[in-house]
Write a structure and sequence with these properties.
Chains A, B: Residues 1-69 form the HTH merR-type domain. Two copies of one chain form a homodimer. Chain A is mostly helical. Chain A folds into two domains: 3-74, Multidrug-efflux Transporter Regulator, Chain: A, Domain 2 (Orthogonal Bundle); 113-169, no CATH class. Chain A contains seven helices and two strands; from the N terminus they run H-H-E-E-H-H-H-H-H. Chain A has helices at residues 3-10, 14-22, 42-55, 60-66, 76-112, 120-134, 143-151; strands spanning 30-31, 37-38. A two-stranded antiparallel ribbon of chain A has the order 1-2. In chain A, a hairpin with a 5-residue loop joins strand 1 (30-31) and strand 2 (37-38). At the A-B interface, helix 3, helix 5, helix 6 and helix 7 of A face helix 1, helix 3, helix 5 and helix 6 of B. The structure holds a DNA duplex.
Chain lengths: 169, 169
DNA sequence: GCTAACGTTGAACATAAGTTCAACGTCAAG
DNA sequence: CTTGACGTTGAACTTATGTTCAACGTTAGC
């Protein structure tokens, strides 16, 4: 079959198929005398496999490293290893997303917890201070800086509890 | 303070800080007569805020849209809306990661479940058939999802799996 | 006055996964 | 023989988030 039919059968665009060939991902391609590419029905399977692997979180580079030229000759050990590591990656990512989500939820709560007697500006400052104090990892916010931040508006800064301390530098 | 000190205090590189300024994200900058940038301590806060928001899955574009020039004057409604939607995004992504993880686990099981009397080639074919049969329809991963992913981790794409029949064993 | 550390700029480069385009070739039908 | 659908190529473009580089200016200390 020619590229248009393969595109139709695989649900991919012709440009994507040609791109996969260009980067050495799809080698199951022949040429007719007129220069046209021809594919066997195996190509549909391979493209389906690539798409599936991509959805499972593999990059095209990873897929290329795993995909054998002969679909019946997989590198069993390498494949299982890659699958296992990908699962670990996913789990790590899930943990981070959970953290992110909790952080956002806490932020929403914190914003809504504005004391009745506090104006918006002061509340913004309170929330901001809490938030930055909560995530000192990347930020070299010294306690001096926190105090400096507080100093820009001396209203009450109701802490929602946990305020981590940063190492001074 | 000059850019070097700001970089040090914020934990970012000077090139990143200049980049943020270039794209209109960091407007809190003045110039001395010699052309040097100078920053107030507010800039540290703003950069911390940007970093935190990025970790929570916001793009720089989104952050720019939300970040007020005056840190005490937030658009409350817009902000809360953005936070709420970002949480929903995260939850959707988590659901898909779970699907992806389950799919990979099932694939590993399936590969290991090779009948004693089946050779590797036939097993490869069996597993492949099962797997492709499991993904009959294309489920799109939007660029939005990818971006949220990238924000928390460097490059791991995502999938969603569809339930299936357990075929020829 | 020299040197080192710091600052400035615009432009190019990097990544991943493609898309788009112009200019051209092939082929079947009318 | 013309038209339209399909195919070919290489190069440039895309998005997001920066980094790197060359060439140059500024400043503090010796």
């Amino acid at each position: 079959m020619r590229i248009g039919e393969l595109a139709h059968k695989s649900g991919l665009t012709t440009s994507k198929i040609r791109f996969y060939e260009r980067i050495g991902l799809l080698k199951a391609v022949d040429r007719r005398s007129n220069g046209y590419r021809t594919y066997s029905s195996q190509a549909v399977t391979i493209l389906g496999l690539i798409t599936t692997a991509q959805r499972a979180g593999f990059t095209l580079d990873e897929i290329r490293a795993l995909l054998p030229s002969d679909l019946t000759r997989w590198d069993h050990a390498t494949l299982m290893d890659a699958l296992t590591r990908k699962i670990a990656d996913i789990e790590a990512l899930q943990a981070r997303l959970t953290q992110s989500r909790v952080h956002l939820l806490r932020l929403i709560e914190d914003i809504q917890a504005r004391p009745d007697d506090m104006d918006c500006a002061a509340n913004a400052h309170r929330v901001l201070t809490n938030m930055l104090a909560e995530h000192p990892e990347a930020l070299d916010v010294t306690s001096d800086d926190i105090r400096l931040l507080d100093a820009t508006d001396r209203r009450q800064s109701v802490s929602s509890g946990r305020r981590k301390k940063t190492a001074s530098r």
